[in-house]
Amino acid sequence: MSATLVEIVKASNLKLKPEDDKLGFGRYFTDHMLVMDYSIETGWTGPRITPYEPIALDPAAVIFHYGQTAFEGMKAYRTEDNRILLFRPEKNFSRLNASSERLSMPPINEEEVLEYVKQLISVEKDWVPTSKGTSLYIRPFIIATESFLGLAASKQYKLVVILSPVGSYYTNGIQPVNIKVEEHYTRAVRGGTGMAKTAGNYCATFNAQTKAINEGFSQVLWLDAIEKKYVEEVGTSNVFFKINGEVHTPELSGSILPGITRMSVIEMLRSWGIPVSERRISIEEIYQSYEEGLLEEVFSTGTAAVISPIGELEWQGRKIVINNKSIGAVSEKLYDTLTGIQTGKIADTFNWTTEVN
Amino acid sequence: MSATLVEIVKASNLKLKPEDDKLGFGRYFTDHMLVMDYSIETGWTGPRITPYEPIALDPAAVIFHYGQTAFEGMKAYRTEDNRILLFRPEKNFSRLNASSERLSMPPINEEEVLEYVKQLISVEKDWVPTSKGTSLYIRPFIIATESFLGLAASKQYKLVVILSPVGSYYTNGIQPVNIKVEEHYTRAVRGGTGMAKTAGNYCATFNAQTKAINEGFSQVLWLDAIEKKYVEEVGTSNVFFKINGEVHTPELSGSILPGITRMSVIEMLRSWGIPVSERRISIEEIYQSYEEGLLEEVFSTGTAAVISPIGELEWQGRKIVINNKSIGAVSEKLYDTLTGIQTGKIADTFNWTTEVN
Ligand SMILES: Cc1ncc(COP(=O)(O)O)c(C=O)c1O
Ligand SMILES: Cc1ncc(COP(=O)(O)O)c(C=O)c1O
């Protein structure tokens, strides 16, 4: 590994850091960012840490018109003994490359960029918050910057990594949420971009999300776009069902995002001897297992909340209440173990964490 | 109409205008642009013409992460007697609002913005090229600018309109193209964003397009995502089939873009007494009508090429040649009449053009 940054330009004025209990999500950003540029002639060049500052792009930049872009989301956690840990960051950079491939974008050198991100976090180490449940959210993204309105992949890109200290997802303890099964809108379809973490997938969900929130739900559950029958994801997280002692989760069909929390939950459950099957799961089957008294736990997984128990589902006006609207034993154990490993409280027997020096 | 621009800031150095035969598409931009800003508190404010210049956005701007954006594309044509005509521009602005609605974005005042765009074109009138087939391409777009990584509609937006002189689409005369029916990738699906002109729909097509071009085709024909059976669009244009004296085009199902050329072609054909049906059309049916000797013409429609005749289709390895690979009589008459109206050579009996003063 000879990942040496070309340049570090320090910010001349540092921002006041917000209080941990005011953080929320994605509102505050640190003093610096990481930037790299790509052109088809030179490849990726010029990795540098600069002050956090506006990005100036030509109005004809491809990102504004044809949306060529991919992003990632991961967290840095502070341990009780003041170390900074990342959770499986190499998985995020390999997923970034998978997203880029779907979007006709050039790959990055995964190990090299991870090294640069560690250097950035190291520069910003005082921004990693300390209170329980808080973390430093890391947002790498690549945008197409060529100034050209023709319909073709951009020949120029910019990679930017910004950092945002974020609050605890569960300030009032873990509360199981109520979820509406979305019937009209679709998130993604086979042959589309659903397996990629790319901007266009997200704006497409705002209408459905707003409608669900206005109806008193906390999120939507997406069904497959083709038959409107099979479960895909919940909001922007993967979803799991514990039925009669076994755990079931939708298979990676091409239209759902391969979550890193999902992958970790599957590995962890199996290590505990709990069977997990990845397969097509119809919403009908979930309702049926509920009727039979076999639906024990439902939860979603993602970097933001880690594990989010689902207390109620509503589909075609039929509401079901899961585990008395309280968190299930497996959900709780997963949450405690995952967050324990992430924050260094529990021995990392899976070798999932990476320290930032 | 009291659409008064707040401000015109003239560029201090004007660019050299490229020769008409060097224009191509979307490479050159004029000296000025139109800008307006939206915030949830004030609505749309500050319409202004400024020098064409980079847009500076916070790295956390919603456009970069969740892709909230919509755009339009239309053209200004120079007539032989030196007037400047727009073709049904009010349709573009109402489609822009339809796109915005799907993307959870605020509507613009359509008439007002059209007035501003006319003022911009008026300032840039010397940029409207004069050679046959050339025009000034107009690209309005709205981008979400709030600096926030939460998954929610942005509370701030920017509308920008840029202008690009573009060359003739048919420098060597109209050549029917060969098109591949895409089997793997999908462009859009019911319940998704296919009916909106939004960035994420376009980057999603680059992989398929590159593959088709590498295989020697000029574009792909998209099938519906659900059954992979029904014809949707060709590249980024709508598609028509003349079968046994009648014209057929896919209905507006929610996954295809409601093209303004498409709408105009339908109205024009009907005015000529040629029956047009908008309906579901299977690719199987097209091949069958070919076998029966009834497939007379195939063409696609869009602002860029107006009418683009299709000379060959390939689906599952089966190639069919349409009308001997030459342009059909109806396609040609549509092309001549539409471009005639657009450039003021033919009386505009439909009342489709609007003059820029
Ligand atoms: C659409 C979608 N699904 C699932 C996830 C969960 O993935 P991960 O566990 O890697 O955060 C995310 C990202 O958070 C997502 O955006
Ligand atoms: C996906 C798509 N389909 C069809 C069209 C044709 O629409 P119009 O005739 O309004 O240019 C366009 C735009 O040009 C488009 O982007």
From TrEMBL, chains A, B:
Chain positions found as N6-(pyridoxal phosphate)lysine: K197
Enzyme Commission no: 2.6.1.42
Ranges in a coiled coil: none
Pfam families in UniProt: Aminotran_4
Reactions that this protein is recorded to catalyse: L-isoleucine + 2-oxoglutarate = (S)-3-methyl-2-oxopentanoate + L-glutamate; L-leucine + 2-oxoglutarate = 4-methyl-2-oxopentanoate + L-glutamate; L-valine + 2-oxoglutarate = 3-methyl-2-oxobutanoate + L-glutamate
Transmembrane segments: none
Keywords: Amino-acid biosynthesis, Aminotransferase, Branched-chain amino acid biosynthesis, Pyridoxal phosphate, Transferase
GO molecular function, one term: branched-chain-amino-acid transaminase activity
Pathway in which this enzyme or protein is active: Amino-acid biosynthesis; L-valine biosynthesis; L-valine from pyruvate: step 4/4; Amino-acid biosynthesis; L-leucine biosynthesis; L-leucine from 3-methyl-2-oxobutanoate: step 4/4; Amino-acid biosynthesis; L-isoleucine biosynthesis; L-isoleucine from 2-oxobutanoate: step 4/4
Catalytic EC class: transferase
Cofactor(s) listed: pyridoxal 5'-phosphate
CDD domains: BCAT_beta_family
UniProt xrefs under InterPro entries: Aminotrans_IV, Aminotrans_IV_CS, Aminotransferase-like, B_amino_transII, BCAT-like_C, BCAT-like_N, BCAT_family
Alphabetical GO biological process terms: isoleucine biosynthetic process; L-leucine biosynthetic process; L-valine biosynthetic process
Similarity comment text for this entry: Belongs to the class-IV pyridoxal-phosphate-dependent aminotransferase family.
Protein name: Branched-chain-amino-acid aminotransferase
Source organism: Anaerobacillus isosaccharinicus
